[in-house]
Write a structure and sequence with these properties.
alpha/beta, about 230 residues, TIM Barrel, eight-stranded parallel barrel, about 15% strand
């Protein structure tokens, strides 16, 4: 896989025209675009279809977490609007994960299970009644997700080595919280540089503000791809 193809740029905005303009400027420089709740709430399926029409893989990050039947319906709906990957919360349980995996027809979208959000640390887990270590909770949820049919895992780069050891090479690992050494960490608590994450074994990297808030987003994307290429 080429270095640039590992990068999914997170476009967190309600502004459809801005998202389309940014997406066009990054075409050929990143592997795809990630859009989430902020964009989807403002623009809905029609907005997703317009992003999809740019001709780049779309990662629809809505983190479905509901009863199995509802999540299955949501996965079927994502196939109608077109996307490469989408997310569910592994903490929704085995039946929900299985329902999501069984709902899709064909290989797409890839079902990615979110383990522990990268904005959470040990203290936050304890505050919601989880007493396992953060790493162990990630492993617990990742195993549950894979056993029940998820294609891959969304997790912090710091959990990659153990996830690879526990789940093997066949599991896709998608890693948010990626910050180049020259970028601010913002609200992410468990971060790693793009080069470090790929070296550790990440398949895809989700990178937002270091690209979207750069003076010239295309130049930032090129710089990140070059850094990944040097390390791989």
């Amino acid at each position: 896989m080429k270095a640039k193809d590992r990068i999914f740029c997170a476009i967190d905005t309600t502004n459809l025209n801005f998202a389309l303009s940014l997406g066009k400027s990054l075409k050929g420089l990143v592997g795809g675009l990630k859009i989430g709740k902020e964009f989807f709430t403002a623009n809905g399926p029609t907005g997703v279809k317009q992003i999809n029409a740019l001709g780049m893989p779309v990662f629809l990050d809505l983190k479905f977490h509901d009863i199995p039947n509802t999540v299955a319906g949501a996965i079927k709906a994502t196939q109608q609007i077109g996307c490469f990957m989408t997310t569910i919360h592994a903490s929704g349980g085995g039946a929900m994960i299985s329902a999501a995996a069984n709902a899709k027809q064909g290989k797409m979208p890839m079902i990615l299970a979110v383990t522990v959000l990268t904005s959470l640390g040990e203290h936050e887990l304890e505050s919601i009644g989880i007493h396992d270590s953060l790493e162990q909770q990630v492993i617990n949820l990742a195993k549950l997700a894979r056993v029940n049919g998820a294609d891959g895992i969304v997790a912090s780069s710091h959990e990659i080595p153990r996830l690879r050891a526990e789940l093997g090479k066949e599991c896709f690992l998608v890693v948010p919280g990626i910050r180049p050494s020259w970028a601010a960490t913002n609200d992410q608590k468990r971060t790693m540089t793009p080069a470090q994450a790929v070296t550790a074994g990440a398949d895809f990297l989700v990178i937002g503000r270091p690209i979207t808030q750069a003076k010239v987003p295309a130049e930032a994307a090129i710089r990140i791809a070059e850094e990944i290429g040097t390390s791989s």
